[in-house]
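Hi Q.,

Before the meeting this afternoon, I wanted you to have the uridine-diphosphate-N-acetylglucosamine prediction in hand. No need to reply - just skim if you have a minute. The sequence and ligand are here:
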Amino acid sequence: MPDPACQAVILAAGKGTRMISTVPKVLHAVGGLSLIGHVLRAAAAAGIARPAVVVAPGMEDVSAEVRTRCPDASVHIQLDQRGTADALLAAREVLTNHRGDVIVLYGDTPFIRPETLQQMIGALDGGANVAVLGFVADDPTGYGRLICDERGNVLAIREEQDASPRERAITLCNGGIMGFRCPDLLAMLGRIGTANAKNERYLTDIVGIARSDGLKVVVVTCPESEVMGVNSRQQLATAESIFQARARTRAMAAGTTLIAPETVWFAYDTVTGRDVRIEPNVFFGPGCILEDEVEILANSHLVGAHVRKGARVGPFARIRPGSEVGAGAHVGNFVELKNTRMAQGAKANHLAYVGDSRIGADANIGAGTIFCNYDGFNKQVTENVPADALALGRAEQQVRLGWAERFRARRGKRTQDQPARGGINKPRNTV
Ligand code: UD1
Ligand code: CA
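Predicted structure with the ligand bound:
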């Protein structure tokens, strides 16, 4: 098979010890999608096919996520986590015969834009041997610093722990994405040593090596928000807030009204139409589509829901995966739908659980209805309800006059002077 013009390698073998988690770092989610899922989407959007992903032994769940999101990716194992250069060498197999561009991405840097990746590829196609993605950090703590000469040419990248106080004051940092077009990339990687604070082989050392070989190294820059890395729960929360700010802006730009944007939480793939109105405190998990003129009222939670034109959901509604709310349909307060398709104009306005079912057009699910006779295959309201029928599942009311008094007398625990207990009266018409 011919080599793709650009080979992407995504490094994801680091365990992310600062996350304090049994879940590998790159599987932590932002906007309902794993960090590595975001990176794979960006690579695909930049037109980079068949990425190679480097994982650690035992990270089967990361491999599975990669294969789900990107079936043509190859997965490579880095046996020991001895640094980012060592990780890239784990993908030696895809680099050996590759003559074109190589773009290296980090699995914990989810917000890279496809346009920026294309700029990196453009720099390589324009004659650079190495392209480094730089950014000016508000707070450079933890990032590698770009050491430049007085004319702005980058000489080397220095990791925080190896930097002198003067170097630490530099705010131009390494975003973690690098591009290479060097026929002897593998040989250069082999020359990287471990003389640093962590005793690791740093990919970033390749910049100094390329310079000493007289190769051309360029810096492409981008905003900090694109290259923020997630190393801790704190940074995961920061990433989420950056993601949500973008998602809210995108929804409003598409014609959706958010009364309190900062209280509405979107997933990476939420689609909202024109003249959609979303009230405060609404959460969307993955797989939601809101067609035009949909209203989502306050405090609703939707995952995997297709809400068709002009439908209304909430307040306090929960829509679970596999559900469809038909055009103009209503799902009201304290109603839960699961894997249920409600056709056009159907209503379930109050206090209902509607699961694994098909609700016909204009049907009305009364208050307090639950679909619960699960037989292992289907759930039904006792029986299917034909169109235009009224289905009632109530036993007939029986009134036994004087029963309570006789009961008390029988038990002998009540005395004459205790007042009679009140009955329940239906409200009377006052007119
Ligand atoms: C790295 C860069 C730093 C840059 C920062 C940007 C190096 C040496 N440093 O630092 O210059 O400013 O990213 O976010 O590259 N990984 C492996 N195998 C390993 C080690 C790491 O696959 O042996 C993977 C990790 O899973 C992660 C990525 O490489 O996705 C980066 O590693 P990390 O340890 O997070 O590097 P930083 O210290 O953040
Ligand atoms: Ca990192």
